[in-house]
Amino acid sequence: MSLADSGPRPGTPARGRPRSEAVERAIVEGVVKLLEEGVPLAELSIERVARTAGVGKATIYRRWSGKEELFVDVVRAAEPPDPVLPGTCLRDDLVAMLESLRQRGLVSRSSAILHNVYAQMKSSPRIWAAYHAGVIAPRRVQAMEVLRRARDNGEIRPDVDLELANDMFVGPMLVRTIMRPDAELPDGLAEEIVDTVLEGLRPVSSTAS
Prior knowledge:
The chain is mainly α. It has 9 helices and no strands.
């Protein structure tokens, strides 16, 4: 999915009065048009978006509280959707989550605009904070719930630090997708990371050798 194909995600909670898909798409496309023209985030005002989209500022504010929230929705719509976890076992859930991160890495590499957008977003504390609160934090909460359930079920040792365990699973994928843009993101990478880390987290057999 390209940034130009972005649109409101199905199931997004309504804000204010009933939402018009056509109006929202015009607003999102207005943001995308400005980004494609090279307008920096710092100059991407609600007034400018409204003028480009052919709507009033009030129309945008009925749907988004400000440009930070609007921009996060545009970027989130351009990313692969969050995975539906199988819930069958710890390994399957972790693989689904890491595969989603791998797909996001592939998308950001293939889209020059999206790659530039991520870079600019990190230089804007307010937009990055909104993205973190609305996108990154919920994913971490989901991962922690998966690990906590696995600990309670005996799939991993009871003494495992779950915060650290989550970083151990996610870290290698983030290194490849963000810090090493030249690194390969092959099929099966998610499974390889999960299986490698799980080896050190599983309960130790009490049977003496």
